[in-house]
Design goal:
globular, Alpha-D-Glucose-1,6-Bisphosphate, Chain A, domain 4, 197 residues, binds fe (ii) ion
Length: 197
């Protein structure tokens, strides 16, 4: 049985920064280490902008995790699907429920900020369906909590480098997913870290 819902709110940062933060895989294992502290690319097809990843965390001395297909549709759409527990035998809701997420960022020009729209589709067995609102609440709480961590990071960086400065995400040593595609759509930026600035 399919259950769909959407979660929408404004993030007070320009679109180019919101997308860069999402693609910045380096921050995941530091800033969001409470949820998972490893992030590995297992397979990719860069032409199709698909990356198959594994995230893991530790629980009571065991290392648990999940694998997931991620897809970037430039300029600002991000999809996740085929989420599976890893290793396969661990008890997980993903054994019985298929989760598909579509996150779309759109520019709010009046405030130079970003509208974040997360659309979720949960395909679950009938016996899980009565708990759908509870599952939805748990997903929403997690998403808002992680976004708040991102917003704190965005504000810290904005104070140091400027609100529109995406060059920190584009430095040679910085690993961001789909860097070339991102650059093609958003450019290397407005403000660079040069003495002239
Ligand atoms: Fe984040």
């Amino acid at each position: 049985m399919k259950y769909r819902f959407a979660l929408e709110y404004e993030i007070d940062t320009p679109l180019a920064i919101a997308v860069a933060v999402y693609l910045d895989a380096e921050h995941y294992v530091f800033l969001h280490k409470k949820y998972s502290d490893t992030y590995e690319v297992l397979w990719h097809d860069l032409a199709a902008r698909k990356i198959f990843i594994r995230e893991t965390w530790s629980l009571l001395g065991f290392r648990l995790g999940q694998t997931c297909m991620t897809e970037y549709i430039p300029p600002a759409e991000l999809r996740n699907y085929d989420i599976k527990p890893h290793p396969w035998w661990i008890p997980s809701i993903h054994h019985v429920m298929q989760t598909t997420t579509r996150l779309v960022y759109t520019e709010i020009p009046e405030r130079n900020s970003t509208l974040s729209t997360l659309e979720m589709e949960l395909d679950m067995p009938f016996w899980l369906y009565p708990f759908r609102r509870w599952i939805r609440k748990a997903i929403e709480r997690l998403k808002i909590e992680k976004d708040q961590q991102d917003i704190d990071m965005i504000e810290r960086r904005a104070r140091l480098f400027g609100r529109e400065n995406n060059s920190i995400y584009l430095a040679d040593h910085q690993f961001i997913l789909h860097k070339q595609d991102y650059l093609r759509h958003f450019g290397p930026n407005s403000k660079r870290l040069t003495p002239a600035d």
